Records
---
Amino acid sequence: MAISKDEAVEKARRDLARRLNVDASTIKQQSVEDSDFPDMALGAAEDGEMSGQMITSGWRIRLGADGKNFEYRADKNQVRLYKYKGKNYRI
Amino acid sequence: MNRNNFLIHLALAIVLILIAAFAGQLNRWRKQWRSSVRVIPAAEKKRASTTEEVALAEARALGRPEVLVKFKPGVSLETIDELTAGFNDRVEDRIENVPGLESIDDLDNADPAEIVAQYSALPEVEYAEPNFEIELDAATETINAPLPPIHPSDPRFDDQWALANSGQRGGKQGADISAMHAWLTTTGSDKVVVAVLDSGVDYTHEDLAPNMWKRPASVAPYHDDQLGTIEDEDGFNAIDNESDPMDENGHGTHCAGIIGAEGGNNIGITGVNWKIRIMPLKFMNAGGFGTTKDAIEAINYVIDRKKAGVNVRIISASWGSTQRSRALEEVIRKAYENDILFVAAAGNATTNNDRSPHYPSNYPNVLSVAALDRNDALAKFSNYGVKSVAIAAPGVDILSTWLGNAYEEKSGTSMATPVVSGVAALIVAENPRITVEQLKKRLLASVDPLPALKSKTATGGRINAAKALR
């Protein structure tokens, strides 16, 4: 089922709260921008993952917590955390 | 008559004969000059926009009999003479082998178009037409000249700048793969199988269905010791290890359409190949991503089918990542050893693959493809690499097939890759016995050099399908 922009933001917020072990209400939404990503893994492929090399439209979601910034990438099919402690994660 | 009178008369006769002879020669010279020097008023020629109009202008300028008129059967010669005399014309010649056909000269030197109109209006006339000039030299030139390029009947063809760039939407005329000239040699063959290793293919799409591969009855179902026997009538699904490779994303369907949407069927778009067999392989899911392991499974399937007698010569791989896998590299090498060319996307990170490798495009035995825009510039997203990226092809705003009998424009080295795979398939169609090594060399030698690609790719050029088939 297709994910909307609002659902993607909410999914990202919940994921970050879980990872940081904080209340989701403390997560600040810094920006949500329409963006084109270089591939179908939104430029955030996990280890061992291959993706279609097609420019893919989605949203770049920037969140803040504990004085740090975090980037999520999403489209209608998926939400991904970009370079969290050096690695990418598909949520 | 005395001797003096006789000599005077003889001299006069000789003078008269010489004058007559000279006048005759003058007339012949005049006629020769008029038939060899074609002086057509520029204004007239400029106005003439159709072949017929040009012929009329030429007829006027040359003083040739202006019109050919075919009178209906039963119209007598006397009636014809009366009708022509009524227009102050004359029958210049009667074409005996075609009763009723007359070559008519207008003595007023009127506009041939008017003469044609006059005669066409007569109830006695079947048709009238201007006297077209047929030039031997021109005819010879026509025979020796290249045939006109083939323009398919598919309604969206004019949106496919990659195949024929007329400058549409701000593009550069001729910045294409010369498909229309390539099709003079071949439009593909249903004997050639290309594996589209991707998210599967919507094999029910109306523009793809006739070109989809079906396992021949002579080839046994796929058997794998671990997976068991799979009834692979329509291809292979490596995600679920089953036979159905239906696309749930659209990416694989798009790539398949570029290679081989049926051409000349008055539907949608034209593939690089009008006729082909597309073997759909699914290893990427509805999101457009998949695992290295499933890619390996699918390549293993292709090699197995090749050994079983399927003429699969190309694997088109519009996917990748920056992670190296020796196992993937190994199975691609096996495919190459089995005469299967592996064509892969160079990637869309705007990076130099010589320094930051992208896989599988960076593996040996792989033809790596960069993307070009409609102005023959390297696409702003495309990876490059003079050592690691072999060739470039159109990859921006590429119209192709999509899920549900739809068509969409997409961009990426994903779109450039099937262009090259498609050209490779055309080469195989024309040269069925070509080896994979020869095929690779042929592709690399078939580029139009582009300044934008100097020091960006190994060949420095855009693939040219017409050159590839010479």
Note: Chain A touches chain B through 18 residues (CB under 8 Å).
---
Amino acid sequence: MSRMARLIDITRCTACRGCQVACKRWNQLEGEIGPFTGSYQSHSDLSPNRWTMIKFYEEKKQTGFEWHFRKTTCLHCGDAACVRVCPNGALVQMENGTIRRIEENCVGCGYCAKACPFDIPKVDHEAKKMRKCTFCYDRITNGLTPSCAKTCVPRAIVYGSWDDMAKLADERLAQAKGRYPKAQIYGKTELGGLGVIYVLPDSPANYGLPIDPKISFSLVFWKEVVQPAGKLLLGASLAVTAAAFIFSRRNAFKQKPSSKIEEGGGQGHE
Amino acid sequence: MTNHWTDFKNTDVALICGSNAAENHPVSFAWLQQAREKRGAKIICVDPRFTRTAARADLYCPIRSGSNIAFWGGMFNYIFENEQYHKDYVLSYTNAASVIKEGYAFDENTGLFDSFNEEKRGYGKGNWDYEKDADGKVVKDLTLRHPRCVFQLMKKHYSRYTIDMVVQTTGAPPDKLVEVYKLYSSTGQVGKAGSILYAMGQTQYTSGSQNVRCMAMLQLLLGNMGLPGGGVNALRGHSNVQGSTDMALLFHLLPGYMPAPTTEWPTLADYNATTPAAPSYWSNRPKFVASLLKAWYGDAATPQNQFAYDFLPKAKKGKNYSHISMFEDLHANTGIKGLFVWGQNPVVSGPSAGLESKAMENLDWLVCLDPFENETSTFWKRPGANAKKINTEVFLLPVTTFLEKEGTLTHSGRLIQYRWKAVDGPGNVRQESYIIDRLVKRVKSLYAASTKPQDLPIKSMTWNYPDPLVSQANFIDAVMREINGKDLATGKQVPSFAALKDDGSTNCGNWIYSGMYTEELGNRTKSRVLDDPGGWGAHPGWGFSWPANRRIIYNRASADPSGKPWSKERAYIWWDEAAQKWTGYDVPDFIGTVKPTDPLGDKPFIMQTEREGRLFAIKGLNDGPFPEHYEPVESPTLNVLNKRQNNPAAFLGKEGGKVKGDSEKFPIICSTWRVCEQFHTGAYSRNMPWLAELMPSSFVEISEELAAEKGIKNGEVVELVSARGTARAVAMVTPRARVFKLHGKNVHQVGLTWHFGYQGLVKGEIANHLTPHVGDANTAIPEYKAFLVDIRRVTV
Amino acid sequence: MSNKKRIMRFSALVRVTHWMYAISFIVLAITGFMVTGSALDWLEPLFGGLVGAMVVHRIAAVFLMGAIVISLIVRPSEILSWLKESFTFTENDALFLLTFPYKFVGMKRELPPQGFYNGGEKINSLIQIVSGAVLIVSGLFMWLAPGITPMWVYPVHVTFMVIGSVGAIGHIYLAALNPLTNETARAMILGDISEEYMIENHRQWYEEVYLGKKKENNKSPA
């Protein structure tokens, strides 16, 4: 299966939250009734039981007031920081682009949550497991559409091959520019191409997305330099001390028998 | 709707006024989005606050709640001044050219039309009629210059609605207002079509009916009736409320929108005498009534006994039986002893809900049928109630939800679709069909031995359906067959209402549904053929659209008087000269073989006697033949368009109009509305964790200016108070709510949802404790959308 | 050829806290490397999976910090003198380091006089003090405040784990395996060491401090 993706065109989203409920239904996640957040937004952020949600943005602009709604979800990055940082191989990149969790391997250490430039993975500290959007892996590998895309009525969420979605993004951008001259695409080139390509009415920063996200240098340094160098050093030190041990005993043996012979014994052996 | 959901993709401009379509009817945006994509359509949103619809619209213009007619009037004036009307259409298809009787008048100083009786609070409508010549024909001036032709009368009437006057009355920004008028009236051009989407924001006012009249008049002026992408389109608030009004779950109707009999028409002949005259299609009404009575009373209904017309209960002439009246009577304890509340929750949804809940304490018994134990079934232990003092015996019958039963639903587009059961209901829930079947059989058996004449209707009522407990499907099937109608001699289904007779040889449970279950095609509501010839989204093989499977009604008007489509861009129905019949992509809303050149061949509005769209409502509504702006019963400003403050015929009930707040004490306009995530009174949605978590509390949207004035912070609890009661909610301080400048005065508007009550996983105070017990002059629909409140912080 | 005179080199406090620290350190290293590499994954069942290993890691961290706290509370003077000496590097210590590679492979060399701790031991102490400090501080942040801990703290923690472990490997070899120095293991267990060893390897201390003390003791009546 070639790389798949979702196009999320937020210039079409009406924030009906159908996707939020469809995801809960398909994955049988618990509802979490919380306090009023001060806006239509249901909660402040994702959680181990909430793998997608709509975030609301009120914008007072020169050209007039705008109200936008962005579906936040795992973006299934082409170059995923979470996969790099996971110490136990609990995150793998599948051929179809899904950044997939391997349940047994996850220990809830939270390193992925730290590393993700979009702050997506959420750790259930009691169960010691991280949870996030699965790209409906079980659905898409059986020829079905992800639950959210299937539900979306104005086709703000579209599912298809990455190439097709990238092309559709261009078409949608052309349409969006009529109403939103500053519209732009996000996700075609970032981090090796994201598994979610957004059409945004304005700068990503307006909608809580980092401009030009990168894997943090510390993470790269850790995994590409410190870890292999450390392995090397430890291995070398063990080898050196093992060799030294052999040599030292031989040297000691060299020194010992002579003194014993002087004494006049005969038992000098190790 | 005159059109339908899929048809929205055909529009050039969609005007969403009095509706938050993206919010409450998300599917509408699938089609509107297509209209944008495929034909560059524009979406206009007119709403007191910036909603989710406004977020997705191309043009947003705010107007304060209660100023709709000022807005529409300004649009009419703009259209007349800039000659944006579709001239030929208006001339040929509306009563624009007809001359009105001399006695008709409107006086802006009194704000009244002629012949108003102040005591009765009603008009003598005799002058609201055409001037007729010696032969009894309507006098017309095809040059549209006669001072009393409808065209000139309308032009004059709305000349007061200047841009400035509209801006002062509505609080709309003038530039946006003109932009809206310009954009929407551009659909008057030949080849263009504009669609109007509306909902409770148009209807729930004392002038609600007139608001709807405005939309009809506008679409007639612009030539948008009968065209794909046009029409007057009500987005109904429940998946089957269209079905419920079609089947006349309303006090003033019989199934198929025929009037319910009153004591004014003691005999069938009297009733039939009110039938609209030919050539209106309504002139066939006696056939529909006779067939209906045959369906209800079977053999007991004969030509000799007026088809058992006597069996029908007669409403007392002049008495109002609306929801408001009923609860006033209940409150005054004048005789209603028992109440069935079937899938409704008036303790939360009723106007002046505090008063209505109190009224229910006077009941001897209450039967609630609901899937959940909602606020109405627990009214006796509601906050503030003293259960010990309440003697009502309450029965809660748990019933299935929409997924657990089968039958048809009729959606806003008049499309009847059969729905199959998905799952069995849990535990002891019962199908409503079972309950009603057992109820009827029980009642009938109780009266079986009676010889009293007043018990005859119950005894004679036919009830020959298969047992729904054995098979719900068979029960529904039998009922549907009867609703469609049969030829009683042959026992065969009639093919359509055209086959119905007034001699007792046919029966029919609802003439507008006739044709949905025929011999040739079977139960057409079950068919799911996707074919769409012409690509207009008509899909004639999908379900059954009343009447007679027409998808767009009045579609004859999509062709000009000669039978040719007005434009080739919108060729929908046309006269086929070779085949000598009307043809096209839909069932013609016309007699198929009547040539355009025949008399009446160029008269598309078949339900009117004059066969024309009425810009002037002949003997029209209770409050006038032309819509006129009046302030809502509670208003923060004086009416400046005329000197009558409120709608003179507004329904005030016996007491409702007296519980009125003044703008000194209650200076803020308040409205109520819905959100996507909660449904109605929340019996479903507040009991479902996945929905409850999306909107966990009742919240009131207030502007940043008002919040600053009152020191209210986002997220803190506030209390709204009106002359009827109080309701607490969490404050949502947002720039989407605004201050309106009305005639130089700054007026705040707030609003909240009415979804919350004291039951369920998430709870909130009942918003309808604030709303007034007054209603529309014609329908008595409560004025939920504009009343006055004050707001204060709750220091807890 | 027994009958060597024994000298008490390490007090009970030093020994207990040393082993407390050492065992903790080993457990920390093993569990730590289980988290950040795959070479030791085969040990996971021993700890109850990776989750168990992380729990053990934190318990061992507490004991590690405990060793420091105990020593600072019970006999701070001893610890402080150790710290002082470790940070005082003399010319003799530098010279010692030149002979160190030979000693490492068991070849005896003439040593310049060393204090209580020789140059190599001082280096080892420095490595452990610095690594320990960094590991403890970074580890506490990672454990208790992961939200505010910047990403670079993690590779720093791993780096110093490697440094500390390399140091420890060398230290363990010298203390327990190298024939020239493996007498000292006994000293860290039972506390005493042969006089001969101290004369050979820590002559400066022997002559100035040990003998000096003896002279003083001799002065005063027994």
Note: Chains C and B do not touch (no CB pair under 8 Å).
